Amino acid sequence: MVRVRFAPSPTGPLHLGGIRTALYNYLFAKKHKGKFILRIEDTDKKRWIPHSESYIFETLKWCQIEPDEGAGYGGDYYPYYQSKRGDIYRFYINKLLDKGHVYYAFDTDQELHKKRKEYHNMGLTFSYNYKIRMHLNNSLNMTKKQLYMKLHSGSSYVIRLKITPGEKLNMHDMIRGKIVVYTDNLDDKILLKSNGGATYHLANTIDDHLMKITHVIRGEEWLPSMSLHLLLYRALGWSTPIFAHLPLILRNDGKGKISKRNVEKLDFPILPLQWKVPDTKTIIPGYRELGYFPEAFVNMLALLGWNPGGNKEIFSLKELIHFFSFERVHKSGVYFNIKKANWFNKQYLNKKQEEILSYLQIKLQKRFLFYEKNYLSKVLHLIIDRIYFIHEIWKHSFYFFISPIYYEYNFFHQICHKKTFYLLEHYKIFLSKIPIFTSLHLRLIFKKIDKANRRIIMQLFRFALVGDLKGCDLFIIFEMVGKEESIRRIDNLMKKIRKKIFHGFFEKRT
Ligand code: GLU
């Protein structure tokens, strides 16, 4: 049975890359009727950031890609927090010691620093590997007795993997195909830290094996670790899972990959949910708070690195499960584009008319305004093309329900003279005499006004009705709000202009 895991470290909020890894794991598991597991990789206490775990849980829930098993969900391979698995890691490191696959290294930070400096001065990079390990402070250069003495003296040590040089490792990745690595180029990575805790490499490999993970699906940043992990599986006598390393998500301004480091400074969102930065207490809104639908977010994310072929872009979660395959996951980095993200939201918004209507109804009820559903539907029909998010509806439709609260400052000042006033007066009377107040009829009647005046008066009427030069077709607004209300709004604007001309008073609203 397929068993995959999402293994985030609680070092801050998940970003687009992290949640996409979770999504691809989920899709793959569901497609193959397997299990999707959540494991929290919290071995690095120094990098732990409070609330990261609850953030992970909430994000998976919001995206509706919840695990079948794991941290917060339970399962047979408990515990799913690495911080609770210390004994397991120590058990296996002892096995590796017995077999001679690892060794104790006693080099102090100062000693290593000195070495690095020496190499640097020679124009070389220091690497703790087979070439140099015999000249360093480790158990490979000690007799059993010396080692015994050293350990009993309480010297601090780490445990490193002893890489055998001269081997060509043929590896396979589901996305990248064949990958070759020469063990000569690998260094003896630390597996057990001086505080007795396992490093990511050791814990990750042991857990994947013990949790019976069949496919390791993770970000490209872990590709360089794959050879080390394969060697570890081999040293432990275990078969290896199948690997897939997902492409990086790149910023489309050419500034490299998306990362959570500069999340506060980015001008586009990369977090699924709101995050409060612990140090600064700054609140960074996520896709949820910005009004994206989770289905749209998930759909957008799925296509950020995977191409199903053909022109279809809108996929429900069920369809994603059906169509998803690693053959169509890109090898190279993919560019994130916020416009495309908005486009996805728009496609889902168009299908959510009932939700938009109830949102609008609630908005109106709060103002003690009640409208027939028929009228609201008409409004929605008129403005839906202008909005990408539910919350934008009010900004674009308020003038169908209430008169403008304020007038756009610049245009108002431009029209504050007697000529406009008289023009408005004249055409208000003209308007009031039109018997049939439908957009069709009004359009015909207005055609009779000479061109120069028509343009100006239509602008002024729009301004009176909307408070701005934006909005839907003017004749439709007339028809929707009705003659009486239209004239009332024209009167209001005239009053404002008169006040400004005679008293020089107009409050600036921003
Ligand atoms: N803990 C690692 C991370 O947060 C997971 C890497 C993996 O999936 O192997 O990126």
Short description:
With 510 residues, this protein is mainly alpha-helical. It has 19 helices and 14 strands.
Describe this structure in words.
With 510 residues, this protein is mostly helical. The protein folds into 4 domains: 3-71 and 202-250, HUPs (Rossmann fold), CATH 3.40.50; 87-192, Alpha-Beta Complex (Glutamyl-tRNA Synthetase, domain 3); 260-349, Glutamyl-trna Synthetase, Domain 2 (Glutamyl-tRNA Synthetase, domain 2), CATH 1.10.1160; 354-506, Orthogonal Bundle (Arc Repressor Mutant, subunit A), CATH 1.10.10.350. Helices cover 43% and strands 10% of the residues. It has 19 helices and 14 strands. The strands form 6 sheets. The protein has a 3-stranded parallel beta sheet with strand order 1-2-3. A 3-stranded antiparallel beta sheet has the order 4-5-8. Helix 6 (200-210) packs across helix 7 (226-236) and helix 16 packs across helix 18. It is elongated and about 110 Å long. The two termini are 61 Å apart. The mean pLDDT is 95. The chain binds glutamic acid (GLU). Residues 7-9, 41, 204, 218, 222 line the site of glutamic acid.
List the helices and strands and how they pair.
Elements: E1 3-6, H1 16-31, E2 35-38, H2 52-62, E3 69-70, H3 86-99, E4 102-105, H4 109-121, H5 144-152, E5 158-161, E6 168-173, E7 177-182, E8 190-192, H6 200-210, E9 215-219, H7 226-236, E10 242-246, E11 249-251, E12 275-276, E13 283-284, H8 294-302, H9 317-323, E14 334-336, H10 338-350, H11 353-365, H12 373-383, H13 393-397, H14 409-414, H15 418-432, H16 439-446, H17 451-466, H18 474-481, H19 483-503
Helix pairs in contact: 1-9, 6-7, 8-10, 11-12, 15-19, 16-18, 17-19
Bound molecules: glutamic acid.
